[in-house]
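does this look right to u?? adenosine-5'-triphosphate version
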Amino acid sequence: MAVQDDPVSQNYVGSVLKDTFRKLDPREMIHNPVMFVVEVGTAVVIWLDIVAKSASGRSYDTLVAVILLMTILFATFAEAYAEARGRAQADFLRRTKSSTRAKVLQPDGSTTMVDSSQLTRGSRVIVEAGDMIPGDGVVLEGVGSVDESAITGESAPVVKAKEDAVTGGTVLLSDRLVLEITVNPGETFLDRMIALVEGAERQKTPNEIALSALLGVLTLIFVLVVVTLVPIARYFGPHAANITTMVALLVCLIPTTIGALLSAIGIAGMNRVSLVNVVAKSGRAVEAAGDIDTIILDKTGTITIGNRMATEFLPVPGVSVEELAEASLISSLADTTPEGRSVVELAQKILHLDTLPEYTGEPVPFSAHTRMSGIDLADGRQVRKGAVSAIRAIVQDAPHELEVNAELVAKDGGTPLAVEVDGRALGIIRLKDIVKSGLKERFADFRAMGIRTVMATGDNRITAAVIAQEAGVDDFIAEAKPEDKIALIKKEQAEGKLVAMTGDGTNDAPALAQADVGLAMNSGTMAAKEAGNMIDLDSNPTKLLDVVMVGKQLLITRGALTTFSIANDVAKYFAIIPAMFAAVPELSGLRALNIMGLKTPHGAILSALIFNALIIPALIPFAIKGVKYRAESADKMLARNIFNWGILGVIIPFIGIWGIDRILGLFGLA
Ligand SMILES: Nc1ncnc2c1ncn2[C@@H]1O[C@H](COP(=O)(O)OP(=O)(O)OP(=O)(O)O)[C@@H](O)[C@H]1O
Ligand SMILES: [K+]
Ligand SMILES: [Mg+2]
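got this back:
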């Protein structure tokens, strides 16, 4: 799903403008202490210096009031614009959703047609090839391929079988499924997702609250500084203590730049996550992603490409390839995993079978706990395939060659599956594991940022070691059951680290909930999606790496603009203080501070104030797009950003204020 380049099209201009003014409401503004002080200051200037002394009609006071008003409007605009972009993305998602007719299965087996909006949790529906899936649910019966491109933008169809989750709005391409609807109207996954992207549930994140509080304290200190300056200025003559000038000084000194952009930066961070097709359930999750110390990735599907294909049968002595192939085929007849299907295909090829043979029996599905799958045939035979250690535990005296062949496969980075019938090991199936391209570079980037990558796999040690080495992860754990993954997360967290992980199965749900950032796959089970704090609509596990990047960028953007904002105020201090007291002979020493050579006190104050206002819209693009950054350690990044944004933050206003002063001079205002 590609969101158009500039989602804030003409439709949004009206709402952005309306919101810009609506946000002036002091009851809303109070949540932003810095801008609230500006608003109060503006009201004071308008009241005392313009309304009360309206006869005088001094253009200086009026100009200051207008610039102050613009400063506040730029701030409310930044937030309104960021929100509108989020809404535009939400509308885009909503357009992909449409109402359909659903075939509801009645208890007596008959079907009735109802509108999809009438389906409730527990409704059972039948979906046939070509039908749109009428709501979020799970598959009860059948196997079919589903086109999820409306949701994910991914054109390759996804196979859905019993217990898989399906999403309303996607289309069944083949076969027939019986579904159980899992949500009530208005609560579908898409509904909730849209509400989230729309920012309806947006709350300030802990870091944002901490930074706002800090900015609030800083503002309070400057209010005290300026208030105590009033009697001093009065002493030197009433002119210097003009209320308008005092308010202008205050507004220049308090961190208005970051105060104006803080909220927009947070909203834009969530928007950027949704631009990579990930829905974050909270801004907090995006922020946590930026602070991650350890990333836990599973092997199959994340580090290696998802469908491991069977490529070879390696029988033990005394067993023919055909015999092993047949046992493998039988063990996989009921196995709907990509591994199972590829075993069936390879066996069919070797046995020259065009159609599948019929066997009756009780299927034993694969589970990450038993690490095997198979079938209990009606004739009494028990056929199993699975991880070599799991099979070894249920056979008598496995021949030495089983181990030798398993190692052969593992050392090649493949997954060996052992096959047994009634306690007799027949041989090994080689599943090919292919490491995804480009991962090594990404893991190197993370290492440079000080983030550790750990692969957690249910596979054997040797395969795990080979794949870990090839992919370039920092560490791995092998033969891990789901609870081992949780234990690993808890261990890292106990050391004070923030952990991110990705997963798709019901098995992964507890680990997703335990992790600080749990990215669930949209193709995964509902349990996993409920447990995670982010959902990847493309179901691409490597997306976690993008999410961490977006989180980092959010934190750096906030840090950079905070540094810039505070550095900026230094220059404004040098512009205003000498100008304020320029007419006082006793303070002629202050003239040395007038390094910009500003001509008149009013000109200096207006220039500083205009610069202070204009820097806000000038930085909106950085707030929305995020500042540029590269993969490096947190320390280096901090140092570089303080240098760039801090030094620039001091220099730029000197140039800007000087320039504005010259322009005002042309109009006789300075
Ligand atoms: N369909 C299957 N039938 C039988 N055994 C399987 C099947 N799929 C996997 N296995 C075996 O069970 C082991 C554990 O599977 P599990 O899904 O826990 O881990 P994995 O797929 O190897 O790696 P990851 O933890 O990264 O998903 C696999 O390594 C493999 O040996
Ligand atoms: K300021
Ligand atoms: Mg697996």
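The two ends are 53 Å apart (CA to CA). idk if thats expected tbh
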